[in-house]
């Protein structure tokens, strides 16, 4: 009897598995769903749009998304880049995703939490990200490992040159083509054209107007001598040249948004494409922002309020305004709601805002949106904001946060304070001291891993090119006793082709450099000097805070055997003359 029972069980199991596969294939073959183009600016303030009343600039293409669709007047993200991006992609607060910094590994978004790209892939979408990722560089943290079929851009927090810089394309290092925001838009349009007959999700996180303040002449010339009619409420604190550069960069963004809109129209995709526009935090300088208090990095209204516009022609009525509060944690639930996708495994802190998109006066239960950064926590309800010092403001009558009403309304203040304490207890953020995650190398599903100087530490007299680690390199390597090391967990044992990106001045050829993992070593000689000048300043409209950059030469160091497990990778010098190389990064390619 047992063999017969086994055969019956086996057939039934096979039938069930076949049905499951058919359901999955049916999901993947659903080509009737709308496309999504999600555009996000970097460090653009709520007030950096003509739609919001700023007459210093003109943004007709971005404004048109709001005019043709819906605009949210009370939409809140986090005070800085990485947290907002993590929330946007997952629908969950960044404090429960491992994100606690904007560099050196603290920007990494924990694996195991599905992103919107991963969910949409299960429904047949082609997915791509073009631009600034900023949620982890090495697989399994990089975009190709988080649901994106294609990635072109950079995974770091900022980039040092916006004109034909070194970028990555699906893990490989490549040279950019022209002004970065234009290049990223070119790639997005090409992807849309290629996949126009199937549903696609394009995530376009542009790098501007984040510093360094670089923009093509055509846009800068409009602003370099322009009188700014609208200024920050404390004008003595505003750097007007910085403001001019930022606004010029925003007008370039607007032109690229126009190019996306034109491409969708020419391809007859307008009616079947949801277009979303927002920024990742408040403005990166003191400039006109509707009188709001705070800028990037602050948990006050000005640091976290952003434009949020959604257009879906013939589905969302034009000119809709939603007063209800929303936030970056709501973006994934809302997009899934608009697509009528119900994923039972998807859990979110955010909510689906679609009901208010179609009917702004729908019933609404008040809620709390939390903002947190650098030990400061603020929270927002529909009417009130409790700031990081537990002052209470009526945001309806006092959007500029001028009058603390905590003593007038102590019960509201105390109740919100209790909610703040509960949230911090429920989602305690990681810190540099409590984050023990190593950098990963050699993920079995990915061929390339890069280890940049940003993620390394150095000993002795070796110096980082700038105190802001993103896009830096190591220099002043003058002693063989000094070294550079990465805290690494190698995920797969094997052979790896190693490429060093370096520069070294005249007279220092013959330096011997050694890469070491325990007893595994790889040694090579730097025989070719290469000493290009620093650059970036020739394109800067305002003096930068970040590192200047230069072109680094790739050196094939050879093939190295790596063992699996957590063990530091150490770069040493065995022999030098007056100085060793400046080091930008190591690139590893697994040899099958």
Automatic annotation (TrEMBL):
GO terms for molecular function: arylsulfatase activity; metal ion binding. SUPFAM superfamilies: Alkaline phosphatase-like. CDD domains: ARS_like. Keywords: Calcium, Hydrolase, Metal-binding. The keyword Calcium applies. InterPro entries: Alkaline_phosphatase_core_sf (IPR017850), Sulfatase (IPR050738), Sulfatase_CS (IPR024607), Sulfatase_N (IPR000917). Signal peptide: none annotated. Pfam families: Sulfatase. Residues 34-341 form the Sulfatase N-terminal domain. Belongs to the sulfatase family. This is Arylsulfatase. It comes from Maribacter aurantiacus.
């Amino acid at each position: 009897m047992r063999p017969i029972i086994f055969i019956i069980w086996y057939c039934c199991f096979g039938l069930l598995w076949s049905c499951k596969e058919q359901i999955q294939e049916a999901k993947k073959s659903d080509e009737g769903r709308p496309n999504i183009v999600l555009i996000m600016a970097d460090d653009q303030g709520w007030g950096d749009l003509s739609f919001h009343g700023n007459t210093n600039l003109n943004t007709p293409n971005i404004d048109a998304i709001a005019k043709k669709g819906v605009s949210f007047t009370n939409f809140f993200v986090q005070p800085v880049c990485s947290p907002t991006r993590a929330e946007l992609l997952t629908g969950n607060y960044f404090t429960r995703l491992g994100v606690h910094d904007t560099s050196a590994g603290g920007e990494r978004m924990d694996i195991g939490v599905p992103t919107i790209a991963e969910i949409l892939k299960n429904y047949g979408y082609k997915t791509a990200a073009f631009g600034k990722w900023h949620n982890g560089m090495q697989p399994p943290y990089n975009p190709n490992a988080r649901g994106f079929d294609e990635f072109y851009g950079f995974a770091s927090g900022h980039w040092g040159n916006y004109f034909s810089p070194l970028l990555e394309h699906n893990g490989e290092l490549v040279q950019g083509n022209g002004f970065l925001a234009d290049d990223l838009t070119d790639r997005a349009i090409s992807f849309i054209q290629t996949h126009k007959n199937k549903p696609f999700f394009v995530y376009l996180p542009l790098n501007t107007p984040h510093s360094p303040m670089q923009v093509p002449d055509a846009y800068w010339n409009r602003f370099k001598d322009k009188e700014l009619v609208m200024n920050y409420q404390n004008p003595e604190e505003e750097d007007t040249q910085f403001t001019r550069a930022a606004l010029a960069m925003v007008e370039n963004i607007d032109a690229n948004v126009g190019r996306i809109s034109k491409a969708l129209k020419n391809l007859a995709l307008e009616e079947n494409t949801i277009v979303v526009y927002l920024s990742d935090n408040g403005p990166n300088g003191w400039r006109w922002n509707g009188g709001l208090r705070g800028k990037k990095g602050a948990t006050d209204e000005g640091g976290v309020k952003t434009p949020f516009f959604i257009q879906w022609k013939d589905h969302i009525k034009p000119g809709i305004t939603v007063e209800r509060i929303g936030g970056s944690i709501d973006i994934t639930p809302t997009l899934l709601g608009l697509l009528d996708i119900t994923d039972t495994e998807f859990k979110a802190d955010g909510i689906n805002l679609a009901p208010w998109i179609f009917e702004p006066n729908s019933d609404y239960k008040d809620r709390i949106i939390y903002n947190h950064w650098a030990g400061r926590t603020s929270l927002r309800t529909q009417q009130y904001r409790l700031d990081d010092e537990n002052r209470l403001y009526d945001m309806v009558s006092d959007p500029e946060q001028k009058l603390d009403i905590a003593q007038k309304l102590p019960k509201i203040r105390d109740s919100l304070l209790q909610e703040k304490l509960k949230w911090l207890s429920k989602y305690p953020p990681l810190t540099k001291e409590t984050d023990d995650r190593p950098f990963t190398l050699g993920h079995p599903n990915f061929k390339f891993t890069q280890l940049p100087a940003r993620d390394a530490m150095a000993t002795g007299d070796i110096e980082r090119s700038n105190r802001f680690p993103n896009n830096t390199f190591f220099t002043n390597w003058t002693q063989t006793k000094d070294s550079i090391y990465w805290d690494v967990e190698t995920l797969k044992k094997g052979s790896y082709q190693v490429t060093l990106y370096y520069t070294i001045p005249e007279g220092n050829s013959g330096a011997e450099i050694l890469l070491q993992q325990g007893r595994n070593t790889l040694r090579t000689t730097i025989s070719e000097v290469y000493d290009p000048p620093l650059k970036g300043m020739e394109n800067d409209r305002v003096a930068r805070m970040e590192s200047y950059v230069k072109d680094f030469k790739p050196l094939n160091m050879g093939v190295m055997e790596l063992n699996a497990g957590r063990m530091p990778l150490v770069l040493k010098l065995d022999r030098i003359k007056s100085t060793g190389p400046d080091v930008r990064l190591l690139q590893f390619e697994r040899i099958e």
